[in-house]
Design a protein that fits this description.
- There is one protein chain.
- By secondary structure, this protein is mainly beta.
- The chain has one domain: Porin (Beta Barrel).
- Strands 1-2-3-4-5-6-7-8-9-10-11-12-13-14-15-16 form a 16-stranded antiparallel barrel.
- It starts with a helix and ends with a strand.
Length: 432
């Protein structure tokens, strides 16, 4: 088997061959089939906090003063366009400069989990799909963004006003959620319909703090798709720069676990089956409504999301007994979660005599989310996971390609016994 370094070297060689013309048997290069386009975006961030990083203390995070700097992300988008409306799209994202690792199950070692550090820097292949278009219909196969929430399309730093992405959406469900599968999109002038079939989430990663977000697969080298999920999204575009829509997700979370351990007991187990008594059903359902608009000098976006997880109490009980080596949170997961988000800004640049290339938008943002909105009987509904956030600031944008943002705000919780948390955030972003 090739090492990861060798596989990357082979992949790079293939890309160079496609881009410059593949070698023929006589040694001469044939014309390249694809026409390449390169784009991307990036973000840098900094923040001042008046509270400590440990929010699990009695009374909430303790008072502190700290500054954090972050090379938030650099995303490189590559698109290859071929004749007959065939496209290949890929997005490579470098985040935070952390350390990446992959996990494997070593069945020769009694099924123990093994973690192997394979690369320096947190590098993720966010999107890698082959697309074919027939008139109004486009079909994609591979890895693409799941059509849930605002971040499925509004993810570039110029798309939102705050210095950071919405906290609620990136906490309750995977932030900029991508999965493997098949997607079909049908477009009309004022309507867009999307249907997707993707791999399910891994319920061994579900937790109190992040609900199903931490069940996004990626710790192992391959994606398990024994349980699949369906996504349907409808977007209405009544006029230019205005879009409203709804979306739904439904899929299993049991058979995508690393091991077949979410199983019931029965009177007549099948000793030849991996799951002798079958599996515990734990489907996940998510519905949401969203909207983005720019009308004159006013720009804003909003999201309302609700999710339900069946048999959350069974998942919580089983997750509490997971191996330490898996790195799973092993905290109870709620049966329901919610997230509400809205931000609005007004461009005052024309009133200040600035040229049309510039936008200066004072804005306000409000969020409310609860990763333990409804819990199973006997489970503790921790009030520190019900959060409200109010922020205000200003966003400067030049030619919709460069942005500088500064905002400040406060986070408070469902219990008055928990201290409020204040922060000031700075964001610098660009779009290629």
């Amino acid at each position: 088997m090739l090492s990861r370094t060798a596989r990357l070297s082979v992949s790079a060689a293939v890309v160079l061959a496609l881009g410059s013309g593949a070698a023929r048997a006589d040694g001469r290069a044939s014309p390249g089939l694809f026409r390449w386009q390169l784009g991307g975006y990036g973000e840098l961030g900094g923040a001042f906090y008046d509270f400590g990083a440990d929010q699990s203390r009695d009374g909430g995070a303790r008072r502190d003063r700290r500054v954090e700097l972050d090379a938030t992300r650099l995303a490189l988008e590559l698109e290859a366009i071929a004749p007959h409306d065939l496209e290949i799209e890929a997005e490579l994202e470098i985040e935070h400069g952390g350390t990446g690792a992959a996990r494997e199950i070593e069945y020769d070692e009694f099924g123990e989990f093994e973690t192997e550090v394979e690369k320096g820097g947190e590098v993720q292949l966010e999107e890698f799909a082959v697309k074919k278009t027939w008139g109004r219909v486009q079909v994609a196969a591979g890895k693409f963004y799941v059509g849930i929430g605002l971040l499925s399309s509004q993810y570039r730093p110029t798309d939102y006003l705050g210095a950071t992405r919405a906290e609620g959406e990136t906490t309750v469900v995977p932030g900029q959620w991508d999965e493997m599968g098949v997607s079909t999109t049908v477009r009309w002038p004022n309507l867009r319909l999307t249907a997707q079939l993707v791999n399910g989430l891994d319920s061994s990663g579900f937790s109190s703090a992040r609900w199903v977000s931490s069940g996004h697969q990626g710790a192992f080298e391959t994606i398990r798709a024994a349980d699949v999920a369906g996504v349907v999204r409808v977007d209405v575009i009544p006029r230019e720069d205005v879009e409203v829509g709804v979306a739904g997700y439904y899929g299993g979370t049991t058979r995508t676990r690393p091991k077949a351990d979410l199983v019931p007991d029965c009177a007549n187990p099948d000793p030849a089956a991996v799951a002798p008594c079958g599996y515990v059903s734990a489907p996940l359902a998510i519905v949401e409504a969203h909207g983005v608009a720019k009308v004159g000098p006013v720009r804003g976006s909003a999201l309302a999301l609700w999710g339900h997880l069946a048999n959350a109490d069974v998942i919580s009980t089983r997750n509490a007994r997971l191996s330490d080596q898996l790195g799973a949170p092993r905290t109870p997961v709620a049966s329901q979660a919610v997230a509400l988000f809205g931000e609005v800004g007004v461009d005052v640049a024309p009133w200040l005599g600035m040229c049309p290339d510039h936008a200066l938008e004072p804005f306000v943002r409000f969020e409310r989310y609860d990763t333990m909105f409804r819990v199973a009987p006997g489970q503790f509904d921790n009030p520190r996971f019900a959060r409200n956030i109010a922020r205000g600031g200003v966003a400067y944008t030049w030619r919709n390609a460069f942005t500088l943002k500064l905002d400040g705000g406060v986070r408070w919780f469902a219990s008055h016994a928990l201290r409020h948390e204040h922060s000031i955030e700075l964001g610098i972003g660009f779009v290629l």
